[in-house]
Amino acid sequence: ENAENMYFFSDLALTLNEPEERVAPTDSRLRPDQRLMESGRWDEASVEKQRLEEKQRAVRRRREAEAVEALEEGKDYEGYIPLWFERKVDAVTGELICVYKGGYWEAKDKQDWSTCPDIF
Q1: DSSP symbol at 87
Q2: Are 104 and 24 in contact (CB under 8 A)?
């Protein structure tokens, strides 16, 4: 219904980014720049997007520096380890894939997001 006014998106596409309660603080639907954009506050959204991108760059630089330091000291460096997924090679295709390793739904049930990084 009314698809011509909604760019002919499906119901799923139109609601995919709707906020949901009780999700991880890292859920992309909580991105402050995105929320500002969706409320029509374009200038604020642009400033917020720049802040988030710089925060991400700073984290990347810190990890790179830690990796160099570990290498210089002859230590292993694991780098970033995703909370709920792990990278594996697909046995059939040989391609690198991400496989759910558990923990998200348990954290959501308990509302314990203490292991989540502060990404926003």
Answers
A1: E
A2: yes
Written as one letter, the residue type at 72 is E
Determine contact, residues 33/52, Cβ cutoff 8 Å.
yes
**Residue 119 has which token pair?**
């990404």
d(CA 105, CA 107): 5
Looking at the structure, do residues 26 and 85 belong to the same domain, yes or no? no
* SS3 state at 89: strand
**Residue for token digits 């991105």?**
31
Q: Which residues pair with residue 87 across a beta bridge?
A: 98
Question: Position 7: which residue type?
Answer: Y
pTM for the full predicted model:
0.76
Domain containing residue 33: 3-79
CB distance 46 to 54 below 8 Å: no
User: What's the domain count of the chain?
Assistant: 2
Quick check: is 75 in a domain?
A: yes
How far, in Å, are 20, 57, 81 from residue 54 at the CA level?
27, 5, 21
The pLDDT tens digits for 82-112 are 999 999 999 999 999 999 999 999 999 999 9
